[in-house]
Amino acid sequence: MKRICVFAGSNAxxxxxYEQKAAELxxxxxxxxxxxxxxxSKIGLMGRVADHVLQxxxxxxxxxxxxxxxxxxxxxxxxxxxEVANMHERKAMMSDLSDGFIALPGGYGTFEELFEVISxxxxxxxxxxxxxxxxxxYYDPLVDxxxxxxxxxFMPETHLQLLIVESEPDLLLERMAxxxxxxxxxxxxxxxxx
Length: 194
Ligand code: AMP
Fold this sequence. Notes:
It contains 6 helices and 7 strands; from the N terminus they run βαβαββαβαβαβα. The chain has helices at residues 16-31, 44-55, 87-97, 108-122, 140-151, 169-177, and strands at residues 3-7, 35-38, 60-65, 80-84, 100-103, 130-133, 163-166. The site of adenosine monophosphate has 18 residues, from helix 4.
């Protein structure tokens, strides 16, 4: 994996551990020579990851839609900052540039980005690893919800393997590096297998 796309909150969260682990991830990416691809802002947990990648001598690439976020939010120290027309172009570019995806704690924006790449994964649109850095168990309720979807018959159990969940950045990157897509179970229970 050469480039990792990170989705993370535009707020930093209330507990210092969110930022500590974001910093650890940023340092690790730089030390391993992996480039960061992300939303391009200097604010929130997303901005902290970029700061720590850059501090450690790594490369950070931002992708921002024009005229959507206030200008002062853009990170001015990035290796590259791409401006695109809208959110759709932004997500397509972030995805094309990256070899894997990691979600850190965040809100609706982060959830949406995570679920888009994971749903593209289950449709076979890409076969890149998708990880969650589960700092302080932040994502436990979301993991439970996904298990609930399996238990209620809305998702094949094998699709749980599409999501790699770890609370330590080094373990998460290790598991993502070893990732091979699961043999997909038949997704649509009402249609015959082909
Ligand atoms: P949220 O989790 O709702 O704070 O949204 C964070 C995600 O949405 C990030 O991964 C970004 O891609 C995008 N996003 C939200 N706010 C901003 C912002 N001010 N600048 C850049 N991207 C943002």
